[in-house]
């Protein structure tokens, strides 16, 4: 099963999986409520969401899923009182179990002005949590014409958006741990073939190392390593040899350094600094700087009230020199095991 790279025959389908840094029409999120796992700390989580929506709407629209009319009215009042540009906010109503839309939202392929919403099964990260409403979210949003005349392809295969990264040109980056956990009977070759076919990729790069304490996704790639423009990879490093993550993240860094671009060159590498441990009681939380969100003209970066925040921002300035870096305090968010990117799903330009 070894080897970080797996190649398949180039895809001939016209649809393409765009990179996150390509033009977007909106960012999709869901508003936290007392009926979600956010309930015990709802106030501080709402404040983090307001900061997130403020960051998004500086650059483009936000589409906010709400559970009902009362939630919409409340969210609208909170946003208006914080001077959010409401002409860039659109509400849509649908039930949801949780608000991690990176994993329950649509993975969108495009062919010019035509779009295909890939609706993979969402199983609550391998059955860890209830997900019956989340698994129907894409279908329900499509029924309300949120995505215009885009078609939806239902795929009976568990895959979360946080588990995959693409450069928009046929290269996919993912982790073996997550995909193997979801599909333990499938070989790497079988999974490579399926991902390549559905996502229109002709190259799959697998990472065998990398994990974060407090991450319950089984090592989603978007907490560890991210593709960036011009053959770059931004990844979470750890330089503290006394930290429990050191050996595994060092092994991941070595794997990433061994990867090659389509034309055989090393990737340009941007290691992110390591934040000091953030604890909730005795539980360590997953404070990853790799969980950033790319929007039109900016990168929204998770911050953790740590001196490393400024260093992480400086790394992202180098990796995305044409974009503004905006810090979002994600300390309330990582309490539920994810961060900024996990909450959001980009919708390509023309889709909404």
From TrEMBL:
One of its GO terms (molecular function) is protein-arginine deiminase activity. GO terms for biological process: putrescine biosynthetic process. PANTHER family: AGMATINE DEIMINASE-RELATED. It comes from the Bacteria. SUPFAM superfamilies: Pentein (SSF55909). This is Agmatine/peptidylarginine deiminase. The keyword S-adenosyl-L-methionine does not apply. InterPro entries: Peptidyl-Arg-deiminase_porph. It comes from Solilutibacter tolerans.
């Amino acid at each position: 099963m070894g080897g970080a790279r797996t190649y398949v025959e180039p895809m001939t389908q016209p649809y393409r999986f765009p990179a996150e840094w390509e033009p977007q029409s909106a960012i999709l999120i869901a508003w936290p409520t007392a009926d979600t796992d956010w309930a015990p700390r709802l106030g501080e989580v709402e404040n983090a969401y307001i900061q997130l929506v403020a960051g998004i709407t500086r650059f483009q629209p936000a589409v906010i899923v709400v559970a009902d009319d009362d939630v919409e009215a409340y969210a609208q009042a909170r946003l208006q009182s914080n001077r959010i540009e409401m002409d860039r906010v659109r509400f849509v109503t649908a039930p949801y179990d949780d608000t991690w839309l990176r994993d329950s939202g649509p993975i969108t392929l495009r062919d010019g002005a035509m779009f295909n919403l890939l609706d993979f099964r969402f199983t609550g990260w391998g059955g860890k949590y209830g997900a019956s409403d989340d698994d129907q979210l894409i279908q329900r949003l499509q029924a309300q014409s949120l995505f215009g005349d885009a078609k939806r392809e239902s795929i009976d295969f568990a895959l979360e958006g946080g588990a995959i990264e693409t450069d928009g040109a046929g290269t996919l980056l993912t982790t073996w741990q997550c995909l193997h956990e979801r599909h333990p009977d499938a070989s790497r070759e079988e999974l490579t073939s399926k991902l390549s076919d559905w996502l229109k990729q002709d190259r799959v790069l697998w990472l065998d190392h990398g994990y974060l304490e407090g991450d319950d996704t089984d090592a989603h790639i978007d907490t560890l390593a991210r593709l960036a423009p011009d053959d770059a990879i931004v990844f979470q490093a750890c330089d503290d040899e006394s930290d429990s993550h050191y050996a595994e993240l060092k092994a991941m860094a070595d794997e990433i350094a061994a990867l090659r671009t389509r034309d055989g060159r090393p990737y340009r590498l941007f290691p992110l600094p390591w934040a000091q441990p953030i604890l909730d009681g005795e539980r360590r939380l997953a404070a990853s700087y790799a969980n950033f969100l790319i929007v039109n003209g900016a990168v929204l970066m998770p911050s953790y009230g740590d001196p490393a925040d400024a260093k992480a921002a400086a790394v992202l300035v180098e990796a995305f020199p044409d974009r503004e870096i905006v810090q979002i305090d994600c300390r309330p968010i990582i309490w539920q095991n994810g961060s900024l990117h996990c909450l959001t799903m980009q919708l390509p330009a023309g889709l909404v």
